[in-house]
Amino acid sequence: MINIPKGTKDVLPFESYKWHYVENIVREVARLFGACEIRTPTFEHTELFLRGVGDTTDIVNKEMYTFEDKGGRSMTLKPEGTAGVARAFIENSLFNRPQPTKMYYITPVFRYERPQAGRLREHHQFGVEFFGADSWQADVEVISLAKTIFDKLGVKELQLNINSIGCPKCRKEYNAALKEYLASKIDGMCATCKDRLDKNPLRILDCKEEGCKEIIKDAPNTIDYLCDECKTHHDNVCKGLTSIGLDYTVNPRIVRGLDYYTRTVFEFISTSIGAQGTVCGGGRYNNLVEQVGGKPTSAVGFGMGLERLIIVLDKLGHTFGGEVVSDVYIAPMCDEARQLAMPLAKSLREKGLSCEYDLMDRSFKAQMKYADKLGCRAVVIIGEDEIKECRASVKFMYSGEQESVSLDGDTIYEYISSKLS
Ligand code: ATP
Ligand code: MG
For residues 109 and 80, what is the distance between their CA atoms, to the nearest angstrom? Predict the structure, then answer.
């Protein structure tokens, strides 16, 4: 028996309706905000992620699924969604179209992580990318898009945490202050953070090691080091969020794990699903497009973990619109009736009713049991006596109500659909 790879999951036929429900809502909300779907390949040249995600991040250093293809090229399965979108934006000159370019995607993401609740080696993200807009309004817009999804799903428990990590200009001053603070504490830090101190000190604030977490508790905050432009931008984002009634907490410890962020960063965090509580994370990344070879382009977006979102919804007892079941089951009671089931099913399906009939040569009793188990709402019973009179019985499973009707597709369709609507 060959098992599923560690850290991956099957979505089974009786649970895929949850995914469809969530995917329909995210697509619908993206549409409300004027964002169109972009689909990029599952693998890209490794170089893209080295440049785009940054070679001081955990993702690039430890978590990438990298392989050599048969042509000797280094390829990597997407470890996040944004770098591929940035590449496509540049390669297809999307900047020549009316700006901003508002895009969304639903994609698998691959990271070699230690599997645990809410942490997989293959997970799925819904992501949004607005390219070409530098305004604080664009930040508010993408945060509002994420919030609209949670509202539509009826999830109230997610808390919005925001922060600003400034621009390269103010980051310089901040990094100096952080290094000064950490200099005397270096012995207590993990090996990775010791290494980060010179290369990328901001990442230390994102460390999950207990010792480092303790040390950074009193570290200086980026928000106190913002230049005038970054400060104004941040204040406006906060005012904008307030103007649409969106509650938030300014959390100076949110810095995000990727190198490409500038200014606004944010996370929507659940308090009820344990340590892996961040359902959505994003922010502004004005340097990314340039880093992967394009002209300087402002950008803002987020990634939403769909497995984690579904864990939250399950926890809340969400029904996801209910399991999808066929409207009609056709139950023939004799061989002649079995011949009639197929054209009847064809006719009902053409009119839009989903329907099934016996494929297992079950007895009539077993068929009724099966239809009940499936949750079909109506059963069309065709028996010997009924065939003689060219009639069928329609039974509604939820009420037990049963009626004899003429055995033709039009009549049966009219009768059932008038009762089901
Ligand atoms: P975390 O801090 O939990 O590791 P992250 O900062 O690495 O998250 P992002 O790269 O911002 O996450 O990805 C966006 C979202 O994707 C996360 O907020 C989370 O909901 C989801 N996600 C990230 N990594 C995983 C994973 N290994 N398994 C399942 N979902 C994940
Ligand atoms: Mg992570």
Answer: 6
